Every structure is written in C-alpha cells, then in structure tokens.
C-alpha cells in the first residue's frame, strides 16, 4: 500500500489554527503587508512557519525514521482495509500530516483491521469510525 503523496504537491484541504499575537508583532506584520512584502497576514505567517519547518528538516526526518511514521497525505480505502483483513494482518497507522479514512469504510471493517492510529496533524474519518476506534486513537 503505497498511496502516500506529499502534502506540498497538492494541498487538498487545510486545517485552521488560531494564534495569539501581541499588538507590536501584529503591527509589524501589517507594516510588511502594507509595504507589499506579503499579500496578507496569513501569507506572512504561513511563510514564517514553512521557513521554520525547513530549518528543522533533518530533525524531522530523523524523528520520522525513528518512529516509522509516514509523512504527507495517507488515504485508507475499503479495498486497502479489505486486503489487510484478508491477509490476516492489523494496520498501525502512523502519519505526520493528514490521514483520511474513506467514508465508505464501515466501523466493523475499521475495527477488524486498524490496531492503532497515531496522527500528528489531522485525522479525517466519519464520526462512526472515530467512535468505533476511540480506544485505538492516540
């Protein structure tokens, strides 16, 4: 099962976060936007975050290897989970980024095939799947 795609290749969705900034920092951001360095506040914040993450690429890579996690977007379809079930195996999801469980996956199939879920980022699954796997989501 190798349907992992890098998030930067195509960002299908974004996760909204909220941050608190001091008035001086906010004013400095607005000044840079006004001067045309960035199109808006979000543009500056996204750029700053990417630059910071890029400066830690090696650390992130070593950590991913150590924890055997997948980086990017990872989809789990009915066919994927049925193949795991038919092979008599259990899946341990470890993703840094976005893990998506197809809406067609039943809670029963998910419980039969998914032993644990660890996602640093976001997990997209139906409420029924999340409820069925509540004791396995860490």
Automatic annotation (TrEMBL):
- What name does UniProt use for this protein? CopG family transcriptional regulator
Native organism is: Paracoccus stylophorae
Q: Which CDD domains did the record assign? A: RHH_NikR_HicB-like
Q: Which InterPro entries match?
A: Arc_rbn_hlx_hlx, RHH_8, Ribbon_hlx_hlx
Signal peptide stretch:
none
